[in-house]
Amino acid sequence: MAHCLEMLSLPFQSFIEHPSLLWEMTKRDVLGRYRGASFGLLWALLSPFLMLCVYTIAFGFVLKSKWPHAVDSKANFALILYVGLIVHGFFAECLVRSPQLVLGNPNFVKRVIFPLDVLPWSMILSATFHALVNMLVFVILHTITAGPPPLTVILFPIVLLPLIVLAAGVAWFLASLGVYLRDVNQIMGVVAAALLFLSSAIVPLDALPERYHLLFRLNPLTFIIDQARNVALWGVAPDWAGLGIYAAISVVVMYLGCAWFRATRAGFADVI
Is residue 229 scored above 70 in pLDDT? Predict the structure, then answer.
């Protein structure tokens, strides 16, 4: 029984055994992004606001894009687009950074006592922090342009949680794979772009020919983006059954990724 509990807790050992280290690594990751900037951590709020302005101009005024659920408002369309890009931005950051997690920290690899499992979690927590900050910006701008968002917006973290679990599994796979196959780092940028344009982040499924629906639904971001828009914009409760199935698959991926990382980390020092 004790052995089973130990196996089940393996992906979360960083939280159980090294909470202080995980906190410091996450804080270093977040603050390091803005080190040397005049506005410091304030850029965590300014960057998404400026990004939303760019989306509004590019898609709302230049391309004159419309969304089936949106009223005839450029600001409304920008907010719809922004929710999808928050979800994509979180997962894309995890994809692009994961292959360098071990390679970029050779000193940690050579320290036998350093728990390398902390590296993926600190990166994921940092990405989650920025996703939640982006959501705060969304709430503020929605309130200014269209009134307060529906109360269901508080469910956004719950909707994002299965994707966080999936990202953990993927991060462990890529962090290990990136050590042995350096080309993975170059590929992930292309994969992140493909996940954006083959999801409902920019184009609603209703606007696509039916023959492309399956391809878009197989994208792991499409379901989460749709659920995020339901709770943040439309005031609709998420699909709990769908989230449950998504979470179950994500947990399987997380455990497989953790097992792969632990099975291959013995060779990291030799390769690096």
Answer: yes
